[in-house]
UniProtKB/TrEMBL annotation:
The keyword Transferase applies. It comes from Paenibacillus selenitireducens. Pfam families: Usp. One of its GO terms (molecular function) is phosphorelay sensor kinase activity. Keywords: Kinase, Transferase. Residues 7-126 form the UspA domain. InterPro entries: Histidine_kinase_KdpD (IPR052023), Rossmann-like_a/b/a_fold (IPR014729), UspA (IPR006016). This is Histidine kinase. Transmembrane segments: none annotated. GO terms for cellular component: plasma membrane.
Length: 227
């Protein structure tokens, strides 16, 4: 891509379904300006200490970057510095001209709504444009509908699939299971990769009757509108 506009776009993502919306917004801007796209996530923990849910999101972001010729994924793990310092450093290193941040209720980016990160970025990189995108909040998570995701597997059993928490020879898919709270049964949503696409399927008492993708925002009660 010939970057005639001399623009470079940086999207800052954190764990959760909102990352995909931020990436779409960043990709749209990058395509319009014919500019390179950088995807950044920051975590205070070392990479080898991250749980299964976080690793799953990281793999998704990597896949997204690999599927776009001008996109590059950057991860800053084991970071003790303020998020704004890390973002500013990446912006300078990659000649970033526009940064996209998400406003979300349950992430470290929540600080953005208080102005601290914005003020710091304006001081450190005053000539970079900041885009604050309003993203879906975890409405149903706030109400305690789903537990934290855990690593799980799907095993073919006749005309349906069984959910398992142990990797077996018969395992066909690996992903993350989000269990509904206040139930003794394995009911919830299973998220996994199939043919380079992310799917969310419903699980009822540990059984998946069909690998039919459901609207994750509708299933979790999230507002998927983009302002």
């Amino acid at each position: 891509m010939n970057n005639m506009s001399n623009e470079s776009i940086l999207v800052c993502v954190y764990y959760g379904p909102n990352g995909e919306r931020l990436l779409k917004r960043g990709c749209k801007i990058a395509n319009m300006m014919k500019a390179p796209l950088y995807i950044l996530t920051v975590d205070p923990k070392p990479f080898d200490e991250l749980d299964a849910e976080k690793l799953f999101y990281i793999e998704q972001w990597k896949e997204y970057a690999h599927s776009h010729a001008t996109a590059q994924f950057i991860m800053k793990d084991n970071e003790s510095r303020p998020v704004s310092k890390v973002i500013a450093e990446v912006a300078r290193d990659n000649n970033i001209t526009q940064i996209i941040l998400g406003q979300t209720a349950h992430s470290r980016w929540e600080q953005i709504t208080k102005g601290s990160i914005i003020n710091s970025l304006v001081r450190e990189i005053p000539f970079v444009d900041l885009h604050i995108v309003s993203v879906a909040r975890y409405i149903r998570d706030e109400e305690g509908i789903y537990e934290k995701g855990i690593r799980a597997y799907l095993i073919k059993d006749g005309d349906h699939y069984k959910l398992s928490f142990n990797h077996e020879k018969q395992t066909e898919y690996e992903g993350i299971f989000f269990k509904e709270v206040d139930t003794d049964f394995d009911n919830g949503i299973f998220r996994f990769m199939k043919d380079a696409a992310t799917l969310h399927v419903l699980v009822s008492d540990g059984i998946i009757t069909e690998l039919k993708n459901v609207d994750i925002y509708a299933a979790m009660g999230l507002d998927n509108s983009v302002e």
